[in-house]
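Model it.
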Amino acid sequence: MTESTLDPAVLEKWIGRSEQRTDIIGAQAAQFMQATMDQQPTLQDGDMLPHGWHWLYFLEAKPMSALGRDGHPLRGGLLPPVALPRRMWAGTRLQFHSPINIGDSINRVTTIKDVKVKSGKSGALCFVTVLHEFWRHQHHLMSEEHDIVYRQDPQPGVTPPVPPLAEQNAEIVKTITPSAVLLYRYSALTFNGHRIHYDIDYCRDVEGYPGLVFHGPLSATLMLNLLSGSLPARSIRQFSFRAISPLYADRPFTLNLRKTTEGYSIWATNPDGYLAIQASAS
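Modeled.
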């Protein structure tokens, strides 16, 4: 395993590294996701896979001995060996070209697009941008840019910055009450061993969170589901979201949607009225 580092000259050598995976978009995972979303499991081969549900596929299974303290695979393979212990899903930009259908055999090409080491109020940060391209034979279906942020452990006595207050001009508002069971089932569906989603002692004692952290991709999926209720799913061409502050299990939050001149603005508000996620779609 490559030695961890924060040297930008070393980490930037990972830019351009890539891998390919092929997966069958099976109906069972989609049906299990329907049940997790409190829906009757009805999806079958030939049906369009709902937007955001591609995160159920192309999963990686590393041996237990190849996992880090947080339950994620050790770095230094495709992902650069960033010497920072905390990892979070910072944002995503999706472009939908053609539907992915259940039963399809899909090829995903993954490339490390960028690596940046920065310094923030809480200490050193490293942002890694991963590009996924999805293909069915020679047909380009979807592009995804995924931002991962790595951070230092919280310092004693240092409180996280207060996020901005959320807007109050939504046209559609939906309240979500995320139970620990919901988080656990989504972690199981995505084979996500990240302990911040199910290990409350680890959350509080090691990473400094007050509760189990809600998944970034599940937040994006719920936003896309809310958007699909307002217009045909096939008409959604672009979706992007940026994480501002964490959401937690057993703390109700709201999803908000408003039409704009460019498309739609979507945001998540925590129970105290502060902005958690900002998203847009066209």
